[in-house]
Amino acid sequence: FQRCKKGIFFLPQKLLIPNNNSIIVACEESGKNLFNIPNNLLQNVTKLSLKNNKITLEDHDKEILGRFINLTELHLNENNITVLYNCSFYNLKKLRTLDISNNCISTVHKAAFAGLNQLSVLNLSHNKIAQLDSDPFTSLESLRVLNLQYNFLKYFHIKSSFKLIKIVLAGNPWNCSCDLLDLQTWLTVSNVTLENESNTTCDFPNMEKISIKMAAIQPADCKTEKTSLENTVTSTAAVNLRSSALITALTPNNFTGNNGTHTAGVLGFVLSTTLLIFTAVKCPAWYHYLMSYRHRRLEENYSEMFEQEFSADMNSSPVSATSSEEPVVIFEKVHAFGDEEDGFIEDKYIDTCVNEEH
Questions:
Q1: Which residue intervals define the domain LRRCT in the entry (predicted)?
Q2: Judging by DSSP bridges, how do beta strands 73-75 and 166-168 pair with one another?
């Protein structure tokens, strides 16, 4: 008889496997309302079932799991696990089957399965995973079966070098757009078997329930979309780089010397340059308006032209005999006011209120 717990004869079986002459020690700890992994299990256990409990797989649980270096099969399904942190199963180098289905897992860290060099079957089905790529699985050189069905996956970025025998992806709300192209290509080119393919269908952009392998995703359209996105990102990065350079120039460490006036001048120049760059990038119409504005010097023949035009207008208009001298008087006032000008025009309109006061 092989004991599963210390002091308890639990499992009356001592199985000899002809291939490697190893002993299977199975422990059944399911449905016991456990919040943590028991620490009184024998360390030579090879098959451990902890399903249908309330285990969250916190640091304390990971520490206990690390003691079972002979473990080849682990069932943690139907628990309360929400996050798979890095190195959650690091010491289980002989583990071949891992079942963590039917939990509440929403986040899988990149190195969550680090150290599982012998793992061949991984079940992550019936969780709440919405974003995932192949990075957490690339280090699993022996992985052959991956079950991701019934999660919240809309896309699954996968590297072409990723190798499996079988993958299960049914029951996810797949978005058959350019984001799914690499998965579709991988499913077509590799020898992997897509289990339950008839239920592995597109939910978006249409509801026709087409298999993700058969969805019409055009690589040429995706390349165009990717190029457009890259150009937008490059343009934004250039603007950010200029802004960062100007901000760096504004830092106190970049101002040296004791001359406060010089420092204020440099600061004003940098601020005005920043404003011009921002205006040129974000508001090109305002930028051109500001750059095109300038003072114009009064032309020397302007008064003569004004006198001729004014005289022509007065001659063409009917004037009574009693007011025949008024045009001359009015012109003299205007002409006299013009001599007092400084030669620059600030506005195209003349303030008549000022003339009347003279």
A1: 172-223
A2: unpaired
Nearest-CA neighbor of 148 among 105, 191, 187, 112?
Answer: 105
Identity of the residue numbered 336: A
Tell me the three state secondary structure of residue 41.
strand
- Contacts of 24-28 with C-beta under 8 Å, sequence gap 24+, read 25/70, 28/4
Evaluated on CA atoms 186, 188, 194, 199, the torsion sign reads positive
What integer pLDDT is reported at residue 277 of this predicted model?
Answer: 79
Q: What is the DSSP code (8-state) at residue 22?
A: P
Please state, in angstroms and rounded to a whole number, the distance separating the CA atoms of residues 154 and 137: 18
Measured distance CA(258)–CA(56) in Å, rounded: 62
> Given this model, what pLDDT does residue 79 score?
97
Per-residue pLDDT of 56-97, as tens digits, reads 999 999 999 999 999 999 999 999 999 999 999 999 999 999
Taking 70 as the threshold, does the pLDDT of residue 356 lie above it? no
Bond before 205 cis per omega within 30 degrees = yes
The answer to whether residues 293 and 265 touch, using CB atoms and an 8 Å cutoff, is: no
Q: How many residues does the chain have?
A: 358
User: Which of 159, 158, 178, 181 minimizes the C-alpha distance to 224?
Assistant: 178
Tell me, yes or no, if the pTM score tops 0.70: no
Residue 357: predicted pLDDT: 45
pLDDT digits (tens, 9 = 90+) for 112-124: 999 999 999 999 9
The amino acid occupying position 51 is K
- Burial letters 3-18, b for 16+ CB under 10 A, else e: bbeeeeebbeeeeeee
Q: Which of 96, 95, 65 is nearest to 79 (CA)?
A: 65
Question: Residue 321: what pLDDT?
Answer: 44
Torsion of the alpha carbons at 59, 61, 67 and 71, rounded to the nearest 10: -130
298-304 contacts at long range (C-beta below 8 A, 24 or more positions apart): 298/341, 298/343, 298/344, 298/345, 303/335, 303/338
Enter the tokens of residue 71.
Answer: 């473990």
Phi first, then psi: what are they for 230, rounded to 5°? Answer: -65, -40
